[in-house]
Amino acid sequence: MELKKTYQWALVVPTSMGIRLSPIAQGQPVHKSDALMMQATSAETNVASIPACLGLPVKVLTTFVKGSPIARFIRDSLGSRHLAYEGKEVEQGGPWGYRHQINIADNGFGVRGPRVWNDRSGEVGQTLSVKDFDLDRLFDREGVQILHLSGLIGALSSETGRFCLELARAARKYGTKIAFDLNYRASFWKGREQELHSIFIEIASLADILVGNEEDFQLCFGIKGPEAGGEALAGKIDSFKELICNVGRTFPNVSVFATTLREVVSANNHLWGAIMREGDRWHIVEPRPINVLDRIGGGDGFVGGLLYGILKGWEPEKWIQFGWATGALATTFLTDYGQPADEDQVWSIWNGNARVLR
Asked: I need a labelling partner for 245 at 20 to 30 A (CA). Which of 124, 131, 251, 302 fits?
């Protein structure tokens, strides 16, 4: 995949930042915990953290509540993760006005699966708008290799849907590659199916890289594919291939399709694999067992590693291998984003080498 040669930013991600609260006592459920750890979070910065930690220039487009200590906490966290950011400050508007989203989650343990509770009322990220950013400066004068869009932001509000669409149009105008992770959420789509279907179809038609699981492709685009559950994961790979081929016929401009494969044996033991079609070539990582500390963010970690491989200009076979390993890496962190120490650490995960390094 040929990428723009002159650029300031390897990756740009629009996002709505918030905080995640999870029990300090690992494995305990939220309702039985009296001490919680707070982290700055968003699915899109989970993706961005992988290339940023490995030294690539990454920028976050977001918005903040003016004067909020949570906004300050988020800014400090982004800086510590080597993520540049740009965003308008919005007045809170009183106690019942805007705030940053809250994600409350536990890890689960053994036979008890994790639970996630999202509290997004009054979320400041709903106000994201292209009028708050200079797109000509960003994509033309500065230059961006890849714009990564998420369906979570595209579906957050009517304003953010238009925001993502205008970003995609500007990226296409200036020759920036577009990655689109569908991230379907039924609660976001309820009562807005026609509006969001139209937006997602246009963004996908502009995209170069399309990521999603079987439900994402079917529910966002209405394209028939395999049923969730049922036969063992490894036996469904041909069905996944068929689905991706169907999606490819609908979006002929997309050159890379990717999806993760996950089978949950227990909260701490998963089978983890991936499928990628690059052009007409298939690259498959058969599901392999991984130990899981916290599953949240594993899919985002996969996308971050996949995009890193593309940005580095590696052979396509390495894109999916590195993505598989960074996704597995993310599940070993208490945060919902992975922070690889270096490329060698990621390749050791891929090679199954967990020996101590001195």
From this structure: 302
